[in-house]
Amino acid sequence: MEFEEKNIAYPPVHPGTDRTFIRFYSGKPDLNQIFYSQEQEDQPQRIFVTDTNVASLKEMQPFVNFFRGEDYSKPEIKPGFKGKRGNDVLLILGSGEPFKTIQSVLAICSAAIDSNARRSAVFVGIGGGVITDMTAFAASIFKRGALCELVPTTLLSMVDAAVGGKTGCDFDSYKNMIGSFFPAQKIHIIPSFIQSLPESEYRSGMAEVVKTALLYSKDLFEKLAAKPEILQNRNDPLVEQMIKTCVNAKATVVEQDLTEKNIRMQLNLGHTFGHALETRAGLGTVSHGDAVAWGMSRAAVLSEKMGLCTQKYRTTIQNVLASFGWETTPLHSALKGKYSSEEEAANSLFEAMKKDKKNASGKVRFVLQKDIEETVITEADEKDVLCVLQN
Ligand SMILES: NC(=O)c1ccc[n+]([C@@H]2O[C@H](COP(=O)([O-])OP(=O)(O)OC[C@H]3O[C@@H](n4cnc5c(N)ncnc54)[C@H](O)[C@@H]3O)[C@@H](O)[C@H]2O)c1
Question: Whose CA is nearest to atom 25 of ligand 1?
């Protein structure tokens, strides 16, 4: 497969984690070519990890079948499947957030131990953010740190999760409560993977695309604003271009601030409101992308209220978000009927924001914008926040 390559460098958090090579491939996914075109003797041992949905994709069969032995009709692709190809192992986990557990991470470590993996082994996560986060986490703790490569297969994991070295799993009903910073050595981006994504997953990734455009690319934002129908047409050449723009923008940010001490925090635009909505609606009720999109509209209203941006800028953002079909009203429909009044809903959301793990010293901080590509991180008065959550 043809690819272009970019590399980014950081202070190493562990030997071998000071640089990430990001490869953008054109054409259909061909993992045999990516991972098996060199002589086997030159290759370190690989622990491949994916989930049942990804392992079942048509374009994955030529790769997965090598791990199913001579008789391709068995064994079945189901959670817990383990197959070998020479020294390499393929482990298939259950799909989705409910499987983002410490048990899954330990299953990855067990698969590595069972195949006598050394610290020089490469853990390769092939999937959405759930798989890439957990595989990279397992790589970071296996024998105090093995190596990691990622093949993101959802729009969200291409433009966000796989880039930037945040790893982890959920724990005790808290999202991403356990984890580490452990950048992958290589990230293989194959945009054509998005063709098979369910509509809801594609939309969820698009919210992060719009967020990245607002933060770092006026040009991309204007192109998206002029083309909301891109949600229905994944073959539009703009799709590949937008993935590349977002990956490059995130790479530039994490290269400067891997461990989120300063500018990386900007990437949380829309997330303070969005996480609170996800929590109060009940985890999984509103998709992460839909919540972030609603959060961006609330952040724009708060910016205007605090005198940071103009009414024109706030209106532009809300119109674009609405044209993509996202909610921009103060009370999200997922909360309707859950509270006796808008005031009660607003108070409940604000309480959830105060508990967000990213808050320093108990104060709620917001990522707000003065204009496109002009972002500030600031605290806001409780009354202003409550005000933008009510009509
Ligand atoms: N590390 C980070 O910086 C970071 C950033 C953002 C999000 N995340 C994490 O990412 C996770 C969400 O990622 P996600 O949205 O990719 O979810 P996901 O990994 O659950 O994938 C979504 C669904 O799509 C399926 N799928 C994956 N690729 C597919 C394909 N090509 N075709 C068809 N189906 C496919 C998966 O099996 C799953 O059912 C969350 O756990 C979140 O915490 C991490």
Answer: 53
